Amino acid sequence: MLPRRSRASVLVFIVPPLLLYGCAVLLPIVQSLVLSVFEWDGISDMTFVGLDNYVKMFTRDDVFWTAFGNAMGYLAICLVLQLGGALLVASLLTSLRRGREVIKTLYVLPAVISTVAIAFLFQRIYSLDPVGLVNQILDWVGLDSLQTAWLSNTDTVLAAVSIPEGWRFTGIYMLIIYAALLAVPRELEEAAQLDGASAWQVFWKIRFPYIRPVWTTTVVMATTYALRGFDIPYLLTNGGPGQSSELLTTYMYKTAFVHTDYGYASAQAVFIVAECLVAVGLIFMLLRRKDES
Predict the structure, then answer these.
(1) What pLDDT sits at residue 5?
(2) Cα–Cα distance measured from residue 142 to residue 262, given in angstroms and rounded to the nearest whole number
(3) What is the DSSP letter of 113?
(4) Which candidate, 222, 186, 223, 225, places its Cα nearest to that of 206?
(5) Where does residue 249 rank: exposed (0-12), middle (13-18), buried (19+ CB within 10 A)?
(6) Exposed, middle or buried by CB within 10 Å (0-12, 13-18, 19+), for 46?
(7) Which of 97, 130, 206, 217 is the most exposed place for a label (fewest CB within 10 A)?
(8) pTM, entire model
């Protein structure tokens, strides 16, 4: 048992953050849950509709399912870029003798740049007229036939809005994984190398199992953030052309603030929260099953 003074000190430090978290996160979730069973335009009186908003969302709204499919594609691209890129760069950094700090700074820099600045940067990079960087590179390597307006082409727009988000946070996850790799005992790796293990075997059999708890946390962070991704896709395309890059978050925003259907938008918000919780549960279940096998 902690002394009374120690327990009081713990409460002093814990209670204010918990209250802030409750007011900033939990209270809006509860409010959205309550509002989701009402029909409300923000001005007139609220009308109780029960589960009608959810029935509409799951059975009568084709745009919702289009946005859901786009969100899954957006999630997949972000995870490949962020987790794959972070793990690769972190592994390479552990083998470098010089220039580590410079590389880490360059990779983390996008995370501190304004979202609006990143959106404007990639608008220029993807531009067809004037010719942006991507189309210039295609021209230089003789693939000018592949030049296109990447943000206006329905076949490329989803990947085009996903790449900036993946690039933006790769550095953050790289630092987390890099710190975990530095904590791997060197004697374990040296013993494996003396036994004739290859570099891949050392990584897969020693390094990766050792950093698995950190990897799990990183996967959860990247997944939930990608499922809630909004700002860069909204700034780049506003969900267009058509609904080719519409995500659940951008659709929810339009439902609330363009169509002023706050009840239905709240139902979508509840679905996004539930989606994140399900994703976290699946991640832990899959990784736990992998550990047991």
Answers:
(1) 60
(2) 51
(3) S
(4) 186
(5) buried
(6) middle
(7) 97
(8) 0.90
Look up residue 123 and give its amino acid.
Q
Would you identify the CATH topology of the domain 52-292?
MetI-like fold (1.10.3720)
Handedness of CA 264, 265, 266, 272 (dihedral sign): positive
- With CA atoms as reference, report the closest residue to 247 among 102, 98, 74, 94: 74
> Look-up: residue for tokens 């990897």?
215
CA 146 remoteness from chain centre: 29
Q: Can you point out the beta strands (E) in 122-269?
A: none
What does the chain come to in residues?
293
Task: Read off the tokens for 269.
Answer: 């918000």
The Cα–Cα gap between 28 and 272 comes to 13
Query: Residue 48: left if φ>0, alpha if ψ -120 to 50, beta else—which one?
Result: beta
Residues (pLDDT < 50) of the chain are 2
* pLDDT tens, residue by residue, 233-284: 999 999 989 899 999 999 999 999 999 999 999 999 999 999 999 999 998 8
Helices (H) and strands (E) in the chain, counts: 16, 2
Distance of CA 98 to the CA centre of its chain: 31
User: How do the domains of the chain map onto residue ranges?
Assistant: 52-292
In sequence order, what DSSP letters do the residues of 218-259 get, joined into one string? HHHHHHHHHHT--HHHHHHHTT-STTTT--HHHHHHHHHHTS
| Closest by CA position to 54, among listed 42, 31, 37 | 37
For 168, residues 6+ apart whose C-beta sits below 8 A from its C-beta are: 110, 111, 113, 118, 232
Backbone angles phi, psi at 184, to 5 degrees: -70, 125
